[in-house]
Amino acid sequence: MFRLPILAAVMALTAELTFAAPAPGLFTVVGVKVEAAAESAISARDMAMAQGRGAAWTRLFRRLTATANWRTQPKLDEAGLERLIRGFEVANERRSTTRYLADVTFHFNADAVRALLRQSNNSYTETRSPPVLVIPIITGKPGYDAATPWAAAWKNPALQQGVIPFVLPTAADADSGLLARPNLAQAGWDALSGLARRYNAGAVIIATASEDGKTVQMVELSPMGRIAASFAYAQSALPSAADAVAAKAEDAWKARNSVDFATRSHLVADVQFDSLQDWAKIRSGLAAIRSVADVDVIGLALHEAEVDLTYSGRADQLREALAQQRLELRDMDGQYTLQLAAVSAATAP
Questions:
Q1: How far apart are the C-alpha atoms of 274 and 268, rounded to whole Å?
Q2: Number of continuous H segments (helices) and E segments (strands) in the chain
Q3: Which of 124, 200, 245, 291 could covalently link to 64 via disulfide, CB atoms 3.0 to 4.6 Å apart?
């Protein structure tokens, strides 16, 4: 570690950090279907919207928290729900003198939601995963076919709104030969890693559904290994099956990345950068991480700095959150270094 005086020429760069906005859409719940009947059209609408607010809050809570925490969802009255929501949009509105139906998008107040989750001691994550490439195939069919109902089920916009963005191969993918393999479900990460890189994906899910849609086999492949799961349904339910597979992957991500904001830790790191522009990028990346409560610049020189980070959660969760901001944190026998990931990749031996 070093202790360097802060250079006067770069004093302006040590100004207090301001937090960046969360990833677009994370606190927006789209497509909540509402329906109610009452003695008047106005009463039916009010009743439907009240039910919709509760349903949207449940969907948002489950989006941010792991399945094991769902039973701890704070119970809110109507006034409490209204305080969490900053606006809404209505589509496909249908009404009569006694009935009201619509599809509603609710925009939640992110700061109010965070405060509620922390007050109720709920661990949660806003760290979004890199995209996951999904290859939906039908049992007995040769490889991936973008025209199947199973592939169509994965085009639901809701699958882009959670902590994992799910993407499908394009019809003109350069690896069409690989995607057409009849034994694609037996492929390993080595065979699929090149395809994943073209979609900036950190993992690949091969989701194999029976032709009647009643059973689904899921295999998730990544550099960390291979994870398999099975799902069964009494009736054909491909959209529900896609939701279940997505939820399985999301739950694993949230279990690793959900932060307990009741805990605070410190970490001192040497920061390395090539220019003041890179130093500004590093500061912006740190500011965008919600689990980082404070950044104290201890020393600053032309190409290096020393910072004391105050953060919530575990060190491995901090490292994952930093990676999402293209920052790399290295631990060398308790001595931490922080730098732009692109710099690390360029200078790696």
A1: 20
A2: 10, 13
A3: 124
Residue 48: both structure tokens together:
């439907």
* Whole-angstrom distance, CA of residue 278 vs CA of residue 45: 52
Among residues 126, 62, 161, the alpha carbon closest in space to that of 257 is found at 126
Which residue(s) pair with 304 in the sheet? 272
CA atoms within 13 A on the CB side of 260: 10
Name residue 220's beta-bridge partners: 205, 227
Give the start-end residues of each E strand in the chain: 28-37, 85-95, 99-108, 132-138, 166-167, 203-209, 215-222, 225-232, 265-272, 292-300, 304-311, 327-332, 335-340
**What is the reported pTM?**
0.76
Cβ atoms within 10 Å, residue 92: 10
Task: Enter the tokens of residue 45.
Answer: 């609408």
The dihedral region occupied by 52, where left means phi > 0, alpha psi between -120 and 50, and beta the remainder, is alpha
Tell me the pLDDT tens digit for each residue of 56-105.
999 999 999 999 899 999 999 999 999 999 999 999 999 999 999 999 99
CB 131 within 8 A of CB 324: no
* Whole-Å CA distances, 152 to 101, 176, 187, 221: 26, 18, 23, 22
What are the residues whose beta carbons fall under 8 Å from the beta carbon of 18, sequence distance 6 or more?
287
Domain-wise residue ranges, the chain: 8-21+260-347, 28-108, 132-257
Residue 31: Cβ within 10 Å count? 16
10 Å CB burial of residue 234 (0-12, 13-18, 19+) is exposed
What does the pLDDT look like over 259-301, one tens digit per residue? Answer: 988 888 999 999 999 999 999 999 999 999 989 999 999 999 9
143 sits in the region (left: phi over 0; alpha: psi -120 to 50; else beta) called: left
Strands 28-37 and 99-108: antiparallel
3-state secondary structure of 15: coil
